[in-house]
Amino acid sequence: MTGPKIARPAPPPDAAYTASAQSQPVRLPEQRPLLIILDLNGTLLWRKKFSNKMQLRKDLAKFVDHIIQWHHVMIWSSVMHRNMTTLAKAAFGDLRKHLVAEWDRTTLRLSEEESGQNVQVYKQLEWVWADAEIRRETGGKIWDQSSTLLLDDTALKAYKQPFNLVLVPEYESGVEVKGPGGSVLGQIAAYVDEASKYDNVSAWVRENPFVRDTRWASIF
């Protein structure tokens, strides 16, 4: 999939989603498990195009161990199915068995023609929330905007549910951009931990979008 990205109409947030995200988040007595949806390339690792050469982001093993310990975790990547296994093994190692789902490009509801093109994709979270297998893998839990975070390096992918997105600084060409607060993944782990202490994470994220600053000191 080379060449300039082909634009596709972005699905807008619906009225009910927007209304819920605009409510006042309420702090809970204790942290609770969330559904954490992780992108791969550009977020957790960098993979060179047309090869299996890759580099893992700093502190990835610590991040994966922490997130899986506290939350229900799945992958949602726009990579082709044939590449998913390689990337998932590299990112998660033995902890891959604890993932509740691995979604690749085949889950993005593209036409047969679009699936092989460099088209803009959208991760519409209602597809995850309606999935019976994910519900079974998480003990029958019903997920929604109050309890889900999508970690991705591309904001446009979360256009329909923008306040469930943790926008991760892109890990491009295996080069980490330094910033305040220490390790990027260590900061994001701290941010996710704080979000999980509120009754409606979309409302909390709307008020507290992730940015790299000293509020989110790396926990690693």
From TrEMBL:
Domain of life: Eukaryota
InterPro entries: FCP1_dom (IPR004274), HAD-like_sf (IPR036412), HAD_sf (IPR023214)
Disordered as annotated region, ranges: 1-24
Domain FCP1 homology: 29-195
One of the Pfam families matching this protein, by short name: NIF
UniProt-listed SMART domains: CPDc
Name under which the protein is recorded: FCP1 homology domain-containing protein
Species in which this protein is naturally found: Tothia fuscella
